[in-house]
Design goal:
Layout lengths: L5 E3 L6 H13 L6 H7 L2 E5 L2 H13 L6 E4 L16 E6 L9 H4 L9 H12 E12 L8 H13 E8 L11 E8 L7 E5 L19 H7 L11 E4 L26 H20 L3
Helix pairs in contact: 5-6
Length: about 290
């Protein structure tokens, strides 16, 4: 909404900021006061690498966001304990980098100690949100079930401080690196008391990649259910998990679609029979070569 601050502390080439700007500009095109607010008081970001930083600036300008408030520097160097209310934002849209690449001095800025970049960004985002603020964060799906101390602590923190509303399970190869990811949609001001809604995006045999990227139309059913335009009941890809059913030791949030039947694996006897049949067929073919 106009007047809200939108933030991406790991903005890369600025895609989320540009899309949010386009969205808000279109919905406020008849408001003469909107221009100054959108240009100077709405969008904020950070990027640690030089080339993506320059690309983000260019990308924003080409989309009409002429004064992007993007800081060149290490977002994780900020101490979350020092955040004041004026530092916090209403909306966070981000896809933080995956991998262990955080030095020990930066780790000291967080309550959860880990070198996993994405986990520290998640704590940063939780701290950066205003009460009532909302976020959509892309993260590796292994975060939902990893048993390391940092992952467990972050899941516990997320459920304690925020209302986790949706977990969108993305298909393989949405990203060029082939990392399997989910999108966490949450609102600060928890704890999570309502059922967590899950949606498993099944491309039904479509192989994603450079020639066939994920399209907005692929998300039509999910968007309809999320906006309440279509009931999720009876939809195989949709289910809910009650907070009281979550394990209080591991806080496991992994994607386990109860609507899908477990794949029936062939027995050892069936495997042997199939192998014998294949060998028999090969034997018949070889006879014809004599």
């Amino acid at each position: 909404q106009l007047g809200e601050k939108v933030y991406d502390g790991a903005c890369g080439s600025g895609g989320f900021l540009c899309e949010a700007f386009n969205y808000m500009k279109e919905r406020n095109k008849d408001n003469p006061k909107a221009y100054d607010i959108l240009q100077h008081k709405t969008f904020f970001g950070g990027e640690v690498k030089a080339l993506p930083y320059v690309t983000a600036q260019m990308n924003c300008i080409l989309h009409g966001l002429e004064s992007p408030n993007i800081v060149y520097g290490n977002t994780l160097a900020q101490k979350i304990a020092d955040f004041s209310e004026r530092d916090r934002v209403h909306v966070i849209l981000a896809n933080p980098p995956f991998g262990a690449g955080v030095n020990k001095s930066d780790q000291e800025n967080f309550t959860v100690r880990t070198s996993e970049t994405a986990l520290l960004f998640l704590e940063h985002f939780i701290a950066k949100l205003k009460t009532g603020g909302r976020a959509a964060i892309v993260i590796k799906n292994t975060f939902l079930s990893n048993t390391d101390n940092a992952s467990v602590a972050l899941r516990k923190m997320l459920l304690a401080r925020c209302e986790l509303e949706w977990v969108l399970d993305l298909p393989q190869k949405v990203f060029a690196a082939g990392v399997k990811a989910v999108v966490l949609f949450f609102r600060k001001g928890g704890p999570t008391t309502k059922p967590i809604k899950y949606y498993e995006l099944d491309m039904k045999g479509v192989s994603l990649g450079k020639t066939r990227p994920l399209r907005e139309s692929d998300l039509a059913e999910f968007e309809a259910i999320a906006k309440g335009k279509k009931g999720g009941k009876g939809v195989e890809a949709y289910w809910e998990v009650k907070p009281e059913d979550i394990d209080k030791e591991t806080f496991d949030l992994s994607v386990k679609n109860p609507n899908k039947k477990a794949e029936q694996k062939a027995s050892a006897a069936e495997c042997r029979a199939e192998i014998q049949a294949v060998f028999a067929e090969i034997g018949e073919i070889l006879k014809g070569w004599k």
